[in-house]
Amino acid sequence: MVARPQVKVTIAGGETQEGIAVDADSDGSLIIQRDDGSNMRVEAGEVTLRDE
């Protein structure tokens, strides 16, 4: 089983989201699963790995 990294994403306007990197779609956007179980598609932003 491959561990999925915990990530923190900072997007336009300084908004941040945290979750698990679960996939990348065909155009390279990162798909993260938020703590509430919903998925978010990130087209652009700064992604950092969270220290656990």
Brief overview:
With 52 residues, this protein is an all-beta fold.
The pLDDT mean sits at 82
Our measurement of the CA-to-CA distance between the termini, rounded to an integer number of angstroms, reads 18 Å
Q: Indicate the structural class.
A: mainly beta
Principal-axes geometry comes out as globular
What's the layout of helices and strands?
Layout lengths: L5 E5 L5 E9 L5 E5 L4 E4 L3 E4 L3
Antiparallel strand pairs: 1-2, 1-5, 2-3, 3-4
Structural description of this entry:
The model has no long low-confidence stretch (mean pLDDT 82). This protein has strands at 6-10, 16-24, 30-34, 39-42, 46-49. The protein is built from no helices and five strands. The radius of gyration is 11 Å and the shape is globular.
Short descriptors:
52 residues; 5 strands; 52% strand; mainly beta
